[in-house]
Structure formats: structure tokens, C-alpha cells
Design brief:
The protein has helices at 12-31, 56-65, 67-70; strands at residues 2-8, 35-40, 46-51, 74-80. The protein is an alpha+beta fold and 99 residues long. It is elongated.
């Protein structure tokens, strides 16, 4: 899994202008099964996406394709983690630590 943290680097009016395309982009990655959760940070200075995968390069490419990235209104920090413990509804995403 990956935590994709977005940090806005532009005024909120530029964020709002790119929001419809960003939401469509999110929807496409939910449909493909890569994204399992997302939302705004509070305070509203960015957002968080939880993504499935083991290929960091693929996740970085997905981040670069975000309309927010293309418009130059956010930066991404991507953190890979191993979900060894989850709530029951997320049990299918549990992983074991590598040997």
C-alpha cells in the first residue's frame, strides 16, 4: 500500500478550477481498483489517497497524471507501507512482513 499525500502549492481558486478533472481522475483509479480511500486534509491544504500496489514507479506515474499535478497546483509525498493490521472490512489488504 501507499499513502499519497498531496500538498497544495497554489491558491484555492486554482485548486477549485482543477477539481472536476481531479475527481474524474480519482474515479478512474477507484474503478481500476488502485485507490481504496481518499479525501481532503483538515485544514484544507491538500489531501490523502490510500493506494494499493507494490510498484512505487507506477504509483509515482499515477501521481504525475493527476490533473492537480499537471496544473502545477500540488506536490506529492508518497510513502509505501505494509498493512500488517487492519479493521475487519479491510482484512483482504493485510500483508505479512517480508522475511
Amino acid at each position: 500500500m501507499f499513502v499519497m499525500e498531496l500538498t497544495y502549492i497554489a491558491p484555492i481558486d486554482r485548486i477549485e478550477a482543477a477539481l472536476p478533472e481531479h475527481v474524474a481522475w480519482l474515479d478512474s483509479h477507484y474503478a481500476s481498483g488502485v485507490f481504496i480511500a481518499s479525501g481532503r486534509k483538515d485544514p484544507r491544504d491538500g489531501g490523502i489517497i490510500i493506494a494499493l500496489g507494490d510498484d512505487r514507479t507506477k504509483i509515482e506515474e499515477i501521481a504525475k497524471s493527476d490533473p492537480f499535478s499537471v496544473a502545477g497546483v500540488c506536490e506529492y509525498t508518497i510513502t509505501k507501507f505494509i498493512a500488517t493490521k487492519t479493521a475487519e472490512p479491510l482484512e483482504q489488504y493485510r500483508e505479512t512482513l517480508p522475511s
